[in-house]
Amino acid sequence: MATDALALDAVDAYYGDSHILQGVTFRLGQGRLLGLLGRNGAGKTTCMNVTVGLVPPRRGGVAVFGEAVGRLSPEQIALRGVALVPQGRRVFRSLTVRENLVVAARKPVGGGAAAWTLDTVYAMFPRLDERKHQMAAHLSGGEQQMLAIGRALMSNPRVLLMDEPSEGLAPQIVADVMVTVRKLKESGLSIVLVEQNPKLVFDVADDIVILDTGRVAVAAPTAEVEHGVDLGRYLGVF
Ligand SMILES: Nc1ncnc2c1ncn2[C@@H]1O[C@H](COP(=O)(O)OP(=O)(O)OP(=O)(O)O)[C@@H](O)[C@H]1O
User: Fold this and answer.
1) Which ligand 1 atom sits nearest the alpha carbon of residue 46?
2) Pfam families attached here (predicted)?
């Protein structure tokens, strides 16, 4: 069996004394898309923070393509091909669109030709090409989301983490974001898509993990979750 792109194994994580993640285990297969769902405060962002090294796990392990990374720094983990599109986009507001992209550029793990360059990012997001000399602060929310995704792609990741990329965007823009997510999946990237809205992820995810107050309540292929799980119980009314 192929090595998982990402594996969290019995991860416990804390903020100070607050025990947030409690024995979280899930696996992202290579080339697959995992939808990570859960209510507000369930621990989704904390899982992302643990994966990229911002919140080191107190117990348990994190592995990227089979290599343990739970004790590595965020820089070391990024060098192993993990990129995060953070919640709230967090683009560098006082840099231009082009500068935001250039500062994130990195060669793929193991060398070889970079799939993602300024040209290929602009080809995916023509709007960023049109606005490349503008300050990121002046972009619309949807454009900032494109930039946040483009910036993550510039690092030529093997594992892409997307934390609520639809948050705060108009429905048409959300639809555009989901088209992008689908294209990235079709390109072979291994993706974790964090969302509060299950309808968005069911369309595109291979597997679903539902967190409930810091624990994995459900982990199964999408079709099983869609038809066999009482979503209202874990996600509230939607
Ligand atoms: N920096 C922090 N310090 C202390 N507690 C935190 C911190 N960040 C998050 N928490 C708490 O940890 C818990 C999990 O938060 P987390 O952001 O991981 O949830 P989430 O599922 O991503 O929620 P949301 O959908 O609101 O983004 C929440 O109770 C939250 O209040």
Assistant:
1) 18
2) ABC_tran (PF00005)
